[in-house]
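Q: What would this chain look like folded?
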Amino acid sequence: MATLKLKVNINGSSKENLLEQHREIYSHLLEARSMMRKAFPHGRDYQVNPEEDYLHDRDETERRLDIIDNLMEEYQQDYFYIETQGR
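A: My prediction, written as structure tokens:
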């Protein structure tokens, strides 16, 4: 996992602004994850397909959800990193 290396400073964005940006990004990722869960493949949509099609789509959706989960974790870590800085 990669954490941002930015430093809050007098010439840059305020700490509050950076934290708000990260809260908003996290909120949108959470919303995207929820929508993806609602669209998770269901066996009833594959009744006329070979079983492999359903298994493929299920695994692919899990992979995509993992990406969102990793992004959420990274933004949360960045948030805590920014929060510990002065100003």
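Residues 15-41+49-83 form one domain.
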